[in-house]
């Protein structure tokens, strides 16, 4: 067994096991030099808002929505890449990329890593979030001035209301403590994630979809 694969198997959460209480970003893709080079070029393209680079990297049938058939033209329209200066794509993709990378089944890679944690049949991604931004906390009441039950950084929480909306959400920690979280400091498990595959000797983005 290759050394990098042995290390990966030791550090990745078990595919069929419980989701760990914390999910700090981890880069399980760094062993692949060609993907690392592609990812560096992708980061540079995001920084300069290079829509042409993104569309060259996208496959012809790239999936961009759970409810529609994939296509490069639809992907470009969905993200407004004909007006790159105002497109949300750059911030959404940059956020996903900073949260780690992991292999998919086979030779593909997925960003962010949390998209592949645990058993997808046993978890409800729409009800699980990770504290991804500074200042996240579980509070006693839905207010920034309320008592902090627990400061959170990369902690996983489970929402208590499926249809909850608004700035504050009721949530529960892995240890059972309950309180409120500020929505914009957390990321849902089913938020946007990208899948990359090597085709004809080059890396391509075959999917970038999430909640609608």
The run of helices and strands is: HHHEHHEEEEEEEEEEE
- Sheet with most strands: strand arrangement: 1-12-11-3-2
Question: What level of helicity do the residues show?
Answer: 10-25%
- Residue stretches low in confidence (pLDDT < 50, at least 5 long) are 1-17
Form type: globular
Largest sheet: 5 strands, mixed
Q: How many beta-strand elements? A: 12
Write a short abstract of this structure.
The protein is of the alpha+beta class. It contains five helices and twelve strands.
What this model shows, in words?
The termini are far apart. The chain contains 5 helices and 12 strands. By secondary structure, the chain is of the alpha+beta class. A 5-stranded mixed beta sheet has the order 1-12-11-3-2. Helices cover 22% and strands 26% of the residues. It has 2 domains: 27-115 and 195-204, no CATH class; 125-188, SH3 Domains (SH3 type barrels). It has helices spanning 3-11, 33-47, 51-57, 72-78, 89-97, and strands at 58-63, 102-103, 109-111, 128-131, 137-139, 148-151, 156-159, 168-173, 178-182, 186-188, 193-199, 202-209. The longest helix is centred in the first third of the chain and has 15 residues, at 33-47. A hairpin with a 4-residue loop joins β8 and β9 (178-182).
């Amino acid at each position: 067994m290759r050394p990098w694969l042995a290390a990966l198997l030791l550090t990745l959460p078990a595919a069929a096991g419980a989701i760990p209480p914390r999910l700090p970003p981890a880069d399980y893709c760094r062993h692949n030099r060609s993907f690392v080079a592609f990812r560096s070029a992708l980061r540079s393209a995001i920084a300069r808002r290079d829509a042409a680079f993104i569309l060259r990297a996208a496959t012809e049938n790239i999936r961009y929505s759970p409810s529609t058939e994939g296509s490069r033209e639809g992907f470009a329209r969905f993200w407004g890449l004909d007006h790159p200066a105002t497109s949300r794509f750059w911030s959404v993709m940059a956020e996903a990329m900073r949260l780690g990378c992991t292999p998919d089944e086979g030779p593909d890679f997925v960003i962010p890593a949390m998209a592949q944690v645990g058993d997808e049949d046993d978890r409800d991604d729409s009800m699980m979030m990770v504290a991804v931004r500074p200042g996240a906390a579980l509070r006693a009441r839905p207010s920034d001035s309320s008592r902090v039950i627990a400061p959170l950084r990369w902690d996983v929480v489970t929402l208590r209301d499926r249809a909850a909306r608004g700035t504050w959400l009721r949530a529960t920690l892995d240890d059972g403590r309950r309180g409120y979280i500020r929505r914009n400091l957390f990321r849902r498990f089913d938020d946007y994630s990208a899948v990359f595959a090597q085709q004809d000797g080059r890396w391509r983005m075959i999917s970038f979809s999430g909640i609608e």
